[in-house]
Amino acid sequence: MEKRKNLQESIKYVAQKFLEKTKEKEICLISHFDTDGITSAAILINTLKRLDKKFSIKIVKSLEEDFICTLPKEKTILFLDLASGSLNAIKKAGLKNVFIIDHHEVIQEIPDEVEIINPEFNGKEKISSAGLAFLFCKEIDSEAVESAKLAVLGMIGDLMEKSIDKLGEEIFKGDIKKKKGLLLYPSTRPINKVLEYASQQYIPGITGNPYGIIELLRDAGIEPSNGKYKSLIELDEEEMKKLTTEIMLRNPKIKNKEMIGDIFLLKFFNKLEDARELSALINACSRLGRSDIALRFCLEIPQIRREAEEIYAKYKRHLISGLEFVTKTKKIEGRGFVIINAKDNIIDTIIGTIASILSNSPSYDEGTIITAMAYYENKIKVSLRNVGRTGRNVREILEGVIQKTGGEAGGHEFAAGCIIDRNKEKDFIELLQKSFEIEMVKI
Ligand SMILES: [Mn+2]
C-alpha cells in the first residue's frame, strides 16, 4: 500500500483498484453483524446490484482465523467493518485479492495483497464503516446517494452522529430529516412510554416509574389528549424547553449538552423512524442470531418488517432479565473497576450491550472500567467499557492480558472486547484484576 494523505484520496484510489480487480472476478463480501456492519453490507449490495456484479455475502459476529482460512482464494474478498485486526491471518491464509473498508485500530503490517480504507491512516478522522462504504460507493456508482440513509444509520449505530456532515450536504433530502431536541429515544413514540423504558438514559425517579413520569410531564405543562401523550418530535419549542428543564431538575449530574442534540429521522418502509431505534432493532436481530433478517430489513424487503419487530421485542426481554441478573449477582469490585462474570446466565451477544448500559448508569464513577463476561460454546466473550468514555485505555490493558492467556481482542480506547478459551477463565480474571490494580498505582 502506498502512502496517501487524505481520506478522500484514499477512497478514490482503492475504489479504482476495486473496479480493476473485479472486472471478471466474483466478489465475496464479509461484514460485521452490528448496525454499522449490516448497513455497510446493504450499501455495497445496492451498488453491486446496480453495477451488475456477481457477489455473495457472509455476516459474522467476529472474524476468526479458522474462518479466514476457509475463504475462496480465487475471489475478490471485501471485508466491511472488520479485518483491520486480522492482517497477519489474511496473509497466512494466502488470500490474494483483498479489500478492507473499516475504522478499527490497525496494529499489524499491511500485506501487499491488501488494499485498505481506514481513517486510522488519515488523521484518525471520525467516520464509521457505513460512512466509508457510502463514500466508496459514490466513487463507483452514480446512484449511490440513494444509500445515504443507510450510511447515516451506520454512523449512528457507532455513536458518530456528530460526524454525519462528513457524508456531504446532499444527503439531506426526502429520506433523511434532522431535528434538534432531547436525546431520549425513540422520539417517534409517546413521550411517557419513552421516559418509562429509557434504560440507556437513566433518570432517577422517572425511569420505570409511571407515577413519577405523569408528575414530571404535568410540571412541564404537557398533558395527554384522549389519554395519549405526544411524541418528542411533536412537541413545540416551548414544550421541549420546559421538559428539558424538568428532567435536569431531577438529574443534577446530567449536562445540558449531553441531553440536547440532533435527532435523525430516516424513512424506512415509507415511514419516518428514529435512527437510534432502527439501529437498536438491527442490532437486536443480529444478536439473536438473525443477521439475515437485519440485512433484509436494511434492504427494505416488505415481508421482513414484522418478523424483525418480533425479534426486537424478544431481545428487549433478554436485556431486562440480563440487567436483573447483574444487580443480583456477586461482582469483583476494586478501585476504578468492576468485573461481572455472567457465565451462561446472559447470552454472549448481549453482554457488550449490558456493559454499555452499566457504563451509562449513574451507579458508577466516571472512568470506572466495567468488565462483563459471558460463555459462548467453549469460549468466553469479554466486554470492557469505561464509564463516561474517559480514563485508561482498555484496549491496551486487554492486549496485555491476552498476550499471556491467548485470545483475540478488538475495539477502541474506551470500549474493547475479546474472546478467550473457557479453560483460561480463572487465569484471565486474575491477570485482568492485577493489571487494573497496577495501572491504578501508576497513576
Ligand atoms: Mn463500525
Describe the secondary-structure layout:
Blueprint: H1 7-21, E1 27-32, H2 35-50, E2 55-60, H3 65-69, E3 76-80, H4 87-93, E4 97-101, E5 114-117, H5 129-140, H6 148-157, E6 176-182, H7 191-197, H8 210-219, H9 237-250, H10 256-259, E7 260-268, E8 271-274, H11 275-287, H12 291-298, H13 304-328, E9 332-334, E10 337-341, H14 351-360, E11 369-376, E12 379-386, H15 394-405, E13 408-411, E14 415-421, H16 425-442
Parallel strand pairs: 1-2, 1-3, 3-4, 4-5, 10-11
Antiparallel strand pairs: 6-7, 7-8, 9-10, 11-12, 12-14, 13-14
In a nutshell, what does this entry contain?
This protein has 443 residues and is of the alpha/beta class. It is 42% helix and 18% strand. Manganese (II) ion binds next to loops.
Query: In the residues, how many domains can be counted?
Result: 3
Q: Return Rg in Å.
A: 22 Å
Secondary-structure element pattern, one letter each = HEHEHEHEEHHEHHHHEEHHHEEHEEHEEH
Helical residues, percent: 40-55%
**How many helical stretches?**
16
Strand order of the largest sheet: 9-10-11-12-14-13
What is the mean pLDDT? 92
The gross shape turns out to be globular
Task: Please write the CATH class name of the largest domain.
Answer: Alpha Beta
Query: Termini, distance in Å?
Result: 39 Å
- Tell me the major beta sheet: 6 strands, mixed
What is the correct CATH architecture of the largest domain?
A: Alpha-Beta Complex
**Spans where pLDDT lies below 50 across 5 or more residues:** none
